[in-house]
Write a structure and sequence with these properties.
single chain, alpha/beta, seven-stranded mixed sheet, 5 helices, about 20% strand
Length: about 180
């Protein structure tokens, strides 16, 4: 099965997480020839990758938010949004399953704090608060979004976005020069 690594930079809450993200994702970028590395402003733009797929893909989503569905982003009322893209594509059958790499303080619709790795009842979403879990997969695509409305002047998040883009560009340049 094809796998997409999706990183929402709002996952980065402090300098330590910035360093950790670069340390873990950097080697993945260096060893992977992504089909379409894509750096965007909003998570909804992931449609540029998922919308093209004929077969369901698996998603590893590093994100402070689950993006399954929030009350103000109802799938039935609004269609595809940045707040429900994962739920939308699961319902559409474009995503076969996902691993959500959350923060220890990430909330599931504001009623659950996931302090430990858990799995949703339907086994379609694995939830893991450990970033190192992304090393368990091989990737076909890379998607990174900035989500600037959630960064709250967080320079660590901006740094992470720029560093991942730089590493991706350098890897592409190295491949071109081989």
């Amino acid at each position: 099965m094809k796998t997409l690594l999706s990183i929402d930079i709002d996952w980065v809450q402090n300098p330590e997480q910035c360093k950790k993200l670069i340390k873990i994702v950097g080697p993945i970028i260096k060893k992977t020839n992504f089909k379409e590395p894509l750096f965007c402003q909003t998570h909804k733009e992931i449609e540029k990758i998922i919308g093209k797929q004929k077969e369901p893909i698996y998603v590893v989503n590093v994100d402070h938010h689950h993006d399954l569905q929030y009350p103000n982003a109802s799938i039935s009322r609004k269609g595809l949004t940045s707040g429900n893209w994962l739920g939308y594509y699961l319902m559409e059958g474009k995503i076969s399953g996902a691993t959500w790499i959350c923060n220890h303080n990430s909330l599931m619709n504001e009623f659950t704090n996931w302090g430990d790795a858990k799995t949703l009842e339907d086994d379609m979403i694995s939830i893991d608060p450990e970033l190192a879990a992304i090393e368990n997969f091989k990737y076909d695509w890379l998607f990174v979004c900035l989500s600037p409305h959630y960064l709250n002047n967080n320079p660590s998040a901006w740094c992470a976005f720029d560093a991942l883009r730089y590493l991706t560009d350098m890897h592409a340049e190295d491949k071109k020069n081989e």
